[in-house]
Specification:
Radius of gyration: 35 Å
Low-confidence stretches: none
Number of strands: 0
Strand content: under 5%
Shape: rod-shaped
Largest sheet: none
Number of helices: 6
Structural class: mainly alpha
Order of helices and strands: HHHHHH
Helix content: over 70%
Length: 190
Amino acid sequence: MSAETEREISAQEISLGANRYLGKPFELLTQREQAVFRRLVLRRAITRDANQSFDEKLTSAQRLADQVAKFGGSWTFIIIFAVALAVWVAVNLIAASHAFDPYPFIFLNLILSMLAAVQAPVIMMSQNRHAAKDRVDASHDYEINLKAEIEIMALHDKLDELRNTDVKALVAQQQEQIEMLTRLVVASTK
């Protein structure tokens, strides 16, 4: 079979499948649905590691932002930060007249404000990226679910066809037995 004939058969199968399983012509399907039908007819796998392909596209700045957000949202950061604040306050209270940042710790407030001003947008960037990653995962899940749903419907059709074939065979066999019994009854009455 030539490649062109194979493509024509595939296009026909795809068109019939689209009408049968989704109730609309192939041309009206979204690009994702069309891609799913093509893979379905050609018996190609649809699964892939969406997270890996997403992570491969990250820049070094984005990876750094993710690491900062990961560390900034950890207990390790909170404990280190609490200890550093306690040491800062204790040193400046004990040093009293020679403190480099005496009470009310204005320099400490400045450092904390700058840290918050830098850390908050970095964490937001990371969260936005993770939301985008979740959307990619959801899209991929949709494609897999669509293909699975179509495969299940196709299996139901095949089972129905097998059942109908078996029923027809049983009816034909019964007809044959009835005819044989009728011949026996007619022969025995003669």
